[in-house]
């Protein structure tokens, strides 16, 4: 039996909709998107109505060769008001959801936190407060014991990216911009939350496996022979990638990484010195961890920064809007010959190999790897093109599959691949315009439509090797489309 499994991914708040159904409590995004008109660009209701229409998506999953499926439990549905009052209706609904998947032979991989801290938790300081980790552990323990049908658990999705949205990109409370000190403090607490959750899972002797989806985008020097570019890239990798990856996959921090981190953090009057008790917890979590998740989308190219602050994030899909130049950090530049998406994300499949080697070689972590996210966001409109022929997405996935196959051939233990995303959902800061799904969602009618990539995916699911190709001309002919 081949061990490698193909799957797709979702996240509760991005697809569930039903914001007031079954006594759900608000999460961090509700008020940001619904009340603050200066920021709100879209309404998270009804999203893809997944909370109720999940069966439609699981049927498609089964029909199109999807074996594993990533989804998350909304903490604010299970504990809507505080850390201990359980909402039974939501618990029942999640049982129904998991049953529907499992009956179809689809294996769930469930994330406990996917960017959606409950509002009551946010009001206590979210993960910026170390004491609050206890609340997350109560939620985790409840889920581990209650949902015994789940065999794959993920702790916290993209620890660095959640902290980035709050402290760098000002997308979420406390709406800080470029506050790398705060960013690191929150990220550190989330590393601890992850570690303590993994250790709890093993202490409770839960039957299953636990891992963590790590968002990794390498920052490469545009000129490897230029020391200024190399230093810029090291600083960026330390603060964005290694600062959280290293403790998770190596069980501690090297002096080299601590020094690099502090070369950034000193600008924010903060010097990082991990506490001994935290380090014990982190080390034990590394020993207890079952698999490492990698979310990979893009690679950044950097150079020595100029003496001005120039920072903007592309949230519209209008090319060229992303800018990053911070005098004490780095400057992001484009690399000739490397294409990027409409949102200025450089398409560089080689970057996936770089981050996998960080885990297996730089940090000598030989645990199984799951590619927990990878995918291509595009502007698509079914009212203009009734059948979405998403050639760019297909190319993107195939190119990344080629890299994965090569690594598997070389001996890397890559076991699952989850495409972001199963069906279209909204994108956190880009709204409904940025679509990633194999299945197009008409958000008005909630109808699903197969894109060409869904048919292509079905063909891929029948192949033995990821680098085998599908003849698209033949496929289109066969489909008559
Ligand atoms: C990951 C997240 O960061 O990337 C997903 O885990 C997210 O939730 C995905 O949607 C794509 O990012 P974006 O910003 O294009 O939606």
From TrEMBL:
The keyword Hydrolase applies. GO terms for cellular component: cytosol. GO terms for molecular function: beta-glucosidase activity. This is 6-phospho-beta-galactosidase. It comes from Spiroplasma clarkii. Keywords: Glycosidase, Hydrolase. Signal peptide: none annotated. Belongs to the glycosyl hydrolase 1 family. The gene is lacG.
